[in-house]
Amino acid sequence: MPNFSVNVPQLSSLYSTPKLKRGGTNMNLCADQVFDKMLLWRDMATKMKFPLCPAAELPGLRRSNNKRRSRRMISCRAAGADGGRVAVGDDVFSVTTSSKYEVDYLGQSTKGDLNLKLDPLQSFGDGQATLEGPIEEVARTEAQAAENLIRELGIQGPFSAQHSPRGIFCSRTLNLRSISAIGYDMDYTLMHYNVMAWEGKAYDYCMENLKSMGFPVDGLAFDPELVIRGLMIDKEKGNLVKADRFGYVKRAMHGTKMLSNKAVSEIYGRELVDLRNQSRWEFLNTFFSVSEALAYAQMVDRLDDGCISADLGTLDYKGLYKAVAKALFRAHVEGQLKSEIMSKPELFVEPDPELPLALLDQKEAGKKLLLITNSDYHYTDKMMKHSFNKFLPNDMDWRDLFDMVIVSARKPEFFQMSHPLYEVVTGEGLMRPCFKAETGGLYSGGSAQMIESSLNVHGDEILYVGDHIYTDVSVSKVHLRWRTALICRELEEEYKALIGSRGHREELIELINQKEVVGDLFNQLRLALQRRSKGRPAQTLAATNLDDQELTETMQKLLIVMQRLDDKIGLMLESDGELFNKRWGFLSRAGLWDKSHLMRQIEKYADIYTSRVSNFLNYTPFMYFRSQEQSLAHDSPLQDAGIEN
């Protein structure tokens, strides 16, 4: 059996050397980062029965005077006050239980936090003096030492990962230590499909079904660039639209043809998108929506061109949507699509070797892991075996990761009401009715309340992770007060596109600021001219004394400059975000500064969001996610000019 020190490089090879910033939040929280990693390694060492070792035996730690403090932080055995050795682990630490938790200054439960059993200052020998004195000075010193150590260990911590395409971003503060159970959706959450392959195949089956119904589909092809997640289908007008956080439509496409700003204003200038009106609006929540929206847009073109036979009856845009939705539904229900995927999963699934390891960390940290999917048992078992088993250690099976598996869950109803519960008792999927779920079981149907009762965990003790903003995230939060995480793979491409667009946006903002300066002068001169025409003095004596010709010529020049600026700014705004999608721009933004409607939904219902589940690997199961400061419209003047008394 190899000792623990030999395996440290294997663990750290999952990470690259971090580039941490000095000062600010990174310095203050770096000690948390090191402590969480050490705690994770301690748990792994205990479970795998590796002997713990002193710091000197850890590979990669250089012996030098300026590293002495960081080496002391990782020492696996601390010197007691009497010079002897004290034990580690359970003899030193205790865990806050659900019956003794408190609420911290950010409103989070302290359940799962570690506490010292011994007197804090008596636990250290010569280190006692370093913990005495004003906490501001102690924290500054220890944060610097923590930063040094985490760099030595080669760990990519959360605060370097956060500034990357694979960061985990926090909308509402979440103490992961207080989470007792983590539930996962499967499709596009634990398993990411190749969109061109999966949605392309769904589109093909949809087209075949439409053709069998009598619709003209010849010459049509799958084009995923035509639509993005977060758009809405206007079933009354045959449009796809992108709205801002308030519901105002910013971009629109009729069929497959983008509408001008003027046309958008004429159609939607006096109304807001209201997703509660489900008879009119269909929100594109996930990748699964891509094939449906694309097929609908193409069929709108065929309807407008008069290509749809009268034999199909009188069709409006809403009736056309029903036909497309029915054709795609048949593709899913009749089983041909999933049967083809199950026969060759390697063509449709993009493997993620780090994902099973992230779940293994969570399980070994004491989290109860749940799989809750709408997919049936045969599809779930086949796809999970393909995606997980080859990446798990010691011949583990994917089922070994989960304390409970629910297939055919019928979300979102699963979170809202109770359905009959069946236990899957054979590998062929044979089921029998049951009335209570047990740990380790595999079930079909049931309800979220049943899970809470069986596991004795409730409400905000559970984190649910999924890719569907409504079916997974919104309903579980609103009805059960579960904590929530949204998986949005497009974040990685959007992050890169935002970085690539920095120069474009900086130039655009500079032009807008210049127009504001020029426009302010123009407006003041226009007011002076208005007052002069009414025989009243201008705003100031100098403005009143301006020569008529000088006033007029200055205004003419300013107006020409503003008109040219408008032309330039308009073109740049239209191209803003084209690095992500040429038609719709960025996923999370609507316009230069505002958030998209999708982003508003994410902020409202998802406590954290990220591009893939394996991103948890950089954050440890003990992470305390803190939401960022939210800026307000009046913050900027206060920061720039200071508050005047």
UniProtKB/TrEMBL annotation:
Q: Which Gene3D superfamilies match?
A: HAD superfamily/HAD-like
One family name in Pfam for this protein: 5_nucleotid
Q: Which InterPro entries match?
A: HAD-like_sf (IPR036412), HAD-SF_hydro_IG_5-nucl (IPR008380), HAD_sf (IPR023214)
Which keywords accompany this UniProt record? Hydrolase, Magnesium, Metal-binding
Taxonomically, which superkingdom?
Eukaryota
SUPFAM superfamilies in the cross-refs: HAD-like
Q: What is the protein name given in its UniProt record?
A: 5'-nucleotidase
Q: Tell me the organism.
A: Capsella rubella
